[in-house]
Design a protein that fits this description.
By secondary structure, the protein is α/β, with parallel strands linked by helices. The chain has eleven helices and nine strands. Helix content is 54%, strand content 13%. Bound molecules: guanosine-5'-triphosphate and magnesium ion (MG). Magnesium ion binds next to helix 3.
């Protein structure tokens, strides 16, 4: 047999054969084992609340879980949208639930209305999970899964239409999280307006290609109720932490001068529908969709980005070793290319600096030559002046010596002829006239 035939033979899946059992074996208790294991392990559920400040997020969470979570009121002056998670341990019967409520504080208040922090937060939770999965020693069993299972998007009850911020945000989030849109403070809008508002919202979501979470209809047990509830979206809800006496019962309600809005009355609002769909019927589907759809998409994109693929171009099965080698080679050649680029850059820089230095040197040399010429010219002029001055000094000295010789001769003559005064006076005046003539 050829090697390829052998390979084909060993890769072929054997057809399973049905056999009947001779008696009770016990593996029909597998679902019970699963339930028991899950109950022991506990569950986690993470809700992201997106809606403008004061829209009623905290009140609705308190109403939904029938408790009081510690929350701080947000101010309208937050500098940016910040995601604030709070985790609580809840217990109902023997089931433990680790509930995380994440508040998008400051959403809709900024001038620069950016949904990026919300997207980044959701991605960061996926990344944490992926990192745990990729660890050599991973502990997914007791890992606190913080991936967002549902985003409750609170729509302002304007009765008009969705804001562009709502559409942009939901569009950015719809491939990352299950979105359930809800009309908040539904008691502030009339019944007929509410009906039109719901139709308008759904129309806008469809025309803008926003994918909201659809309650699943593939499980027979819940298909009917889920299909009916899908038609009621978006749910119009009212939240309240107050209890009011209606008849002889205390109920959660909002009391107004003209009447009482009962939170759990389906004629007043869709709160019960939301609670049923979110918690009682579809909580597990939301968790599963998060893992199998949204996280899977994130994981696939991330691994592809890292160079992993299921099969290479020739449909050969994926080999981790080969991918690693290929990635390593790619990285090394990139490193080499970068190194070469940097070396070339350095050489060019050195050349440029060398040229600049040479130019500077030439300029300096020229300057020096010019100064030298100027200096020589000056020196020559000074030399000439010095010579002229010397000549003048010599001439002066000669004349001075001649005058002194004449003077001494004259004095000598005067001392020999003291009586000839008149004649001498004339002579003296004659000398002085000589003086005045000869001395400049
Ligand atoms: P921040 O966390 O500060 O952004 O506010 P929030 O969105 O958590 O709103 P919160 O629940 O604190 O409610 C703000 C105000 O709205 C409170 O006075 C609530 O009583 C009121 N409120 C909450 N839910 C409803 C509702 O369904 N209808 C009406 N009419 N008022 C509501
Ligand atoms: Mg709040």
């Amino acid at each position: 047999m050829a090697a390829t035939d052998l390979e084909r033979f060993s890769n072929a899946e054997p057809e399973p054969r049905s056999l009947s059992l001779g008696g009770h074996v016990g593996f029909d208790s597998l679902p019970d084992q699963l339930v028991s294991k899950s109950v022991t392990q506990g569950f986690s559920f993470n809700i992201l609340c997106v809606g403008e400040t004061g829209i009623g997020k905290s009140t609705l969470m308190n109403t939904l879980f029938n408790t009081t979570f510690e929350t701080e009121e947000a101010s309208h002056h937050e500098e940016c949208v910040c995601l604030r998670p709070q985790t609580y341990d809840l217990q109902e019967s023997n089931v433990q639930l680790k509930l995380t409520i994440v508040d998008a504080v400051g959403f809709g208040d900024q001038i620069n209305k950016d949904e990026r922090p919300i997207v980044d937060y959701i991605d960061a939770q996926f990344e944490n999970y992926l990192q745990e999965e990729l660890k050599i020693r991973r502990s997914l069993f007791d890992y606190h899964d913080t991936r967002i299972h549902v985003c409750l998007y609170f729509i302002t009850p304007t009765g008009h239409s969705l804001k562009s911020l709502d559409l942009v945000t939901m569009k950015k989030l719809d491939s990352k999280v299950n979105i359930i849109p809800i009309i908040a403070k539904a008691d502030t809008i009339s019944k007929s307006e509410l009906h039109k508002f719901k139709i308008k919202i759904m129309g806008e979501l469809v025309s803008n290609g926003v994918q909201i979470y659809q309650f699943p209809t593939d499980d027979e047990a819940v298909a009917e109720i889920n299909a009916v509830m899908n038609a009621h979206l978006p749910f119009a809800v009212v939240g309240s932490t107050e209890e009011v006496k209606v008849g002889n019962k205390l109920v959660r309600a909002r009391q107004y001068p003209w009447g009482v809005v009962q939170v759990e009355n389906e004629n007043h609002c869709d709160f019960v529908k939301l609670r049923e769909m979110l918690i009682r019927v579809n909580m597990e589907d939301l968790r599963e969709q998060t893992h199998s759809r949204h996280y899977e998409l994130y994981r696939r994109c991330k691994l592809e980005e890292m160079g992993f693929q299921d099969s290479d171009g020739d449909s050969q099965p994926f080999s981790l070793q080969e991918t690693y080698e290929a990635k390593r080679k790619e990285f090394l050649s990139e490193l080499q290319r970068k190194e070469e680029e940097m070396r070339q850059m350095f050489v060019n820089k050195v050349k440029e600096t060398e040229l600049e230095l040479k130019e500077k040197e030439r300029e300096l040399h020229e300057k020096f030559e010019h100064l030298k010429r100027v200096h020589q010219e000056e020196k020559r002029k000074v030399e000439e002046k010095r010579r002229e001055l010397e000549e003048e000094t010599n001439a002066f000295n000669r004349r001075k010596a001649a005058v002194e010789a004449l003077q001494s001769q004259a004095l000598h003559t005067t001392s020999q002829q003291p009586l000839r005064k008149d004649k001498d006076k004339k002579k003296a005046s004659g000398w002085s006239s000589i003086y005045s003539v000869t001395i400049p």
